[in-house]
Amino acid sequence: MSLEQVPGFLFFDHVAVSVKAGDLEAQVEAYRALGFTEVHREDVLGGDQVREVLLQVGDGPNLVQLLEPLNAESPVAKQIEKNGGRGGLAHVALRVADIQKAYDYMREHGFKLIDKAPRKGSRGTTVFFVHPKTTERAAFGYLIEVVQENNHAGQHA
After folding, report:
1. pTM (two decimals)
2. Is the dihedral of CA 146, 11, 2, 148 positive or negative?
């Protein structure tokens, strides 16, 4: 398989962690105590219904994304409920250079895509999600987000 055919993953963009309602600031402070830097904060509405805080690891491109549900309808609230009321790993996000190319490639190769097409994400990104039952033969067991950074930004908004 030639390199031009693969979906063009660049690196891990972020690891997303669900946080129980009311616990977000304590979590942010704990990451700050480890030397992480807050680089973005946003209420993501629509189908997501979360408060997001992005914390940068060192000077690199890798982030931790804390997700606090804004209401009981948030998918993150439902995930916390399924997890016995505890927060934890929400998803792993992979950065790509060309999200449409990655989407088409993954659809053609039997990956179970949740979104019908790439869509607007937080901080001006374009995203789509891949089901934990990743393919017919291999369930990675965790939700994957595929992310393309907006074209005019530097590292982080």
Report:
1. 0.87
2. positive
CB 154 within 8 A of CB 104: no
Alpha helices per DSSP H over the chain: 24-33, 75-82, 99-108
Rounded distance between C-alpha atoms, residue 20 and residue 5, angstroms: 40
User: Tokens 């030639």 correspond to what residue?
Assistant: 2
CA atoms within 13 A on the CB side of 84: 1
Domain ranges, ordered by start, for the chain? 7-148
Q: Is 124 left (phi over 0), alpha (psi -120 to 50) or beta?
A: left
Class of domain 7-148 (CATH, top level): alpha beta
Across the 157 residues of the chain, what is the mean pLDDT of every consecutive 10-residue run?
Answer: 70 96 96 96 91 94 96 93 92 95 95 96 94 94 93 44
